């Protein structure tokens, strides 16, 4: 199986996430795009109830497309969600054809050398990097290439949606139509999420 993973807090998942996953499936021809919501992301405040809501929102968002999947792998160990450990476990669980693909935004990728066991992680995955802007830091790209990171830069036009922006809009009761899948928006309303933070 050609597997690509999309790991994140997804707080909440939105249409740009789904567009990135669809683009990756179409352009890179992976069999499955596996969404992996982080249970306890390092360096972020942890809320067990919200973690479970985040998982359910991703599950709803990806349920309509046969080549999308979701994994609760990071909810099973209940420790901090370190990417290197998750990827190691995926190789044990699945029969992987080639290297696992890894969807990542450029803002996170530029700091990849600071991640836990980054030198080991870079040998396990091929990064698919999505810039937030049309221009990227070419010097940083060249440096990461020199350091042995395997990656390609996605040519998808950036979509200016972020989870942070959406949370702020939801708290302020501003419209978010077209930014969040309707099934996720219904879940947010039913569970009264993002009322205040």
3D architecture notes:
With about 200 residues, the chain is α/β, with parallel strands linked by helices. It has one domain (about 5-160): HUPs (Rossmann fold, 3-Layer(aba) Sandwich), CATH 3.40.50. It is built from 9 helices and 6 strands. β5 (about 125-130), α7 and β6 form a beta-alpha-beta unit. Strands 3-2-1-4-5-6 form a 6-stranded parallel β-sheet, sandwiched between helices.
Short description:
The chain is α/β, with parallel strands linked by helices and 197 residues long.
CATH architecture: 3-Layer(aba) Sandwich
Mean pLDDT: 93
At the fourth level of CATH, the homologous superfamily is HUPs
Rounded to the nearest angstrom, the radius of gyration is: 16 Å
- SSE pattern, N- to C-terminal: EHEHEHHEHHEHEHH
CATH fold naming: Rossmann fold
Strand order, main sheet: write it out. 3-2-1-4-5-6
What characteristics describe this protein?
197 residues, six-stranded parallel sheet, alpha/beta
List the topology elements.
Elements: E1 3-8, H1 15-28, E2 32-37, H2 48-62, E3 68-70, H3 73-77, H4 83-93, E4 100-105, H5 106-109, H6 118-121, E5 125-130, H7 138-146, E6 151-153, H8 163-171, H9 182-190
Parallel strand pairs: 1-2, 1-4, 2-3, 4-5, 5-6
Helix pairs in contact: 2-9
